[in-house]
Amino acid sequence: MHPELHLHAPAEGAAARALVLDTNIVLDLFIFADPAVAALRALLQQRRLHWLATQAMRDELERVLQYTQLQPRMQFYGVTAQGVLAAFDAAVQLVDAAPRAPYACKDADDQKFIDLAVAHGAVLVSKDKAVLCMRKRLLTLDVPVAASIVVQSKVNHSPIA
């Protein structure tokens, strides 16, 4: 089971929480319409999460979209690389690459996501095992890491306030 991050639904007009998404989550959002990212998709569409990325992240996505093994899936879902990149560009705020975070990831390709999340105090959403195993360390830097986001209402049903 992948770890979930339970967020309270942000109030209308509240400041959006910063967010960093790894490439596989982006594919789930824009190609596969994975139900596991439905809450994330809704919060992004409502601008209640503020998605940050760097040019290197966009370049990685562009490279991944050219993978031969991905082409049949893209055709099945009726999406093109250009369409995915346009959706990415419309949803994300490109920022400068972040300085190296205090913790290093075993997978060097994932370090840029960790660095950016740490620099901005952002939520990091990834299904990558090398990232997920760093959850406790990154939480010490106020960077929650999860494979999916679940939105909870702010109603407290507990008898203890």
Features:
single chain; 161 residues; Rossmann fold; 5-stranded parallel beta sheet; 8 helices; 40% helix; disordered C terminus
Give me the secondary-structure topology.
Layout: E1 4-8, E2 17-21, H1 23-32, H2 38-45, E3 49-53, H3 55-64, H4 71-77, H5 81-91, E4 93-94, H6 111-120, E5 123-125, H7 129-132, H8 135-139, E6 145-146, E7 148-152
Parallel strand pairs: 1-7, 2-3, 2-5, 3-4, 5-6
- Spatial separation of the terminal alpha carbons: 31 Å
- The spatial strand order of the largest sheet comes to 4-3-2-5-6
Under CATH, the topology can be stated as Rossmann fold
Q: How many helices does DSSP assign?
A: 8
CATH class: Alpha Beta
CATH superfamily: 5'-nuclease
- Helix percent reads 40-55%
User: What number of domains?
Assistant: 1
Which spans of ≥5 residues are poorly predicted at pLDDT below 50?
155-161
Return the structural class: alpha/beta
- Calculate Rg over CA atoms: 16 Å
Strand content: 15-25%
Q: Label the CATH architecture.
A: 3-Layer(aba) Sandwich
Number of strands: 7
What's the rounded overall pLDDT mean? 86
The largest pleated sheet is described as: 5 strands, parallel
Q: What is the 3D shape?
A: globular
Q: Give the ordered list of helices and strands.
A: EEHHEHHHEHEHHEE
Can you give a write-up of this model?
The protein is an alpha/beta fold. The chain has a single domain, classed as 3-Layer(aba) Sandwich (Rossmann fold). It is built from 8 helices and 7 strands; from the N terminus they run ββααβαααβαβααββ. The chain has helices at 23-32, 38-45, 55-64, 71-77, 81-91, 111-120, 129-132, 135-139, and strands at 4-8, 17-21, 49-53, 93-94, 123-125, 145-146, 148-152. A 5-stranded parallel sheet has the order 4-3-2-5-6, with helices on both faces. It is globular.
